[in-house]
Amino acid sequence: MKAIRPDSEVNAIRESCEIAAMVLRELELVVAEGINTYDIDQIGKEKIASYGAKSACFNYRHGAQIFPAHTCISVNEEIVHGIGRLDKVLNSGDIISLDVCVEYNGFIGDNAKTVAVGVIKPEVNELLNTTKSALEKGIEQVRAGNKVGDISNAIEKVIRPKGFGIVQEFVGHGVGKTMHELPQIPNFGSRGMGSVLKPGMALAIEPMVNMGTHRIRFLKDGWTAVTLDGKPSAHFEHTVLVTEGDPEILTKLKK
Ligand code: MF3
Ligand code: CO
Asked: Which atom of ligand 1 is nearest to the CA of 57?
C-alpha cells in the first residue's frame, strides 16, 4: 500500500514524538505529594524549551478560547485539558493525568498518561490499568489495511466489561503538521467501520475512561472537562505510526 507521506516527514514526526515522550517522563518524575499543578506545568514549559521544541497546547485556539498553559494537567475527576493551578496541590490518593503535545521541526508529537500520587484505592488502580490496556489493545489494531473502527472496537472491548464510562466528546486523531488531523478515532465503535489505515499515518490514540458515568461537564475556565458525577477519570495516549508491518509506537521511550 502506498505511504501517505514521505520518509522525511515521518522522521520529523518521530523526532517530535520522542521529545514529547521524554518531557512526559520528566513530568511524571516530579509528581509527588505537595507539588501544585502550576509548578508542574512550568517545569513542562522549561523541558519542552530545553529540547528546542514548542508546546502545541499553549495558545491553542478553540473558537474564541485560547489555551493558556503549556501542558494539560487533569487531577482526579478532571478528564482532560486541565490548566495548572497554584492552588491545586497534590495529595496521596490522587491521580493526575499529564498530557504533553509538542511541535518540533513543524510536526506534532502527542502523548499522555495518568499516574498515581502516593497510595491510591484498588478500584482507582483498576481504572488506570484498564485505560492503559485499552490503549495497548487499540494500538495492536494499527496495521495497514485495518479500519479506524477496528481500533475503536478493540478499545471499547477492554472497557465495557469493567462497567466504566467511555468519554464520547473527545477522540483520538491523526497528527501531522497540526495537532488534530483526520481520521478521528472514537474510543468505541464497530469493526470494519471508518477509513482505511495507510502506511505513514501517525495516529494519536487516547482512551479517556471514567470510573462512573461517561457524562461530562466543563469547568468555568472553559477548558477543563470533568466527570458529571465527580468520580475519577483516566487518560493514556500514544502517537502510533502505521507501517507496512507492526505498529510503531512513536512516543514510546527508547530508554
Ligand atoms: N493531547 C491533547 C489533545 O489531543 C492536547 C490538547 S492541548 C489543548 O486534545 F490545548 F487543546 F488543551
Ligand atoms: Co491527543
From this structure: 10
Q: Is 203 touching ligand 1 by the criterion CB < 6 Å?
A: no
For residue 5, what pLDDT is reported?
97
Query: Which mutation among 16, 27, 59, 80 tests ligand 1's pocket best, with the greatest number of atoms within 8 A of CB?
Result: 80
Statement: 7-249 belongs to CATH 3.90.230.10: yes
* Beta strand segments in the chain, E: 54-55, 61-62, 65-66, 72-75, 78-80, 95-104, 107-116, 165-166, 172-175, 181-185, 202-205, 208-210, 216-218, 225-227, 233-235, 238-241, 248-249
| pTM (predicted TM-score) | 0.98
Determine if ligand 1 sits within 6 Å of the CB of residue 238: no
Question: Would you kindly state where each structural domain of the chain is located, as residue ranges?
Answer: 7-249
Task: Please report which confidence band the pLDDT of residue 85 belongs to, taking 50, 70 and 90 as the band edges.
Answer: very high
pLDDT in tens, 22-37: 999 999 999 999 999 9
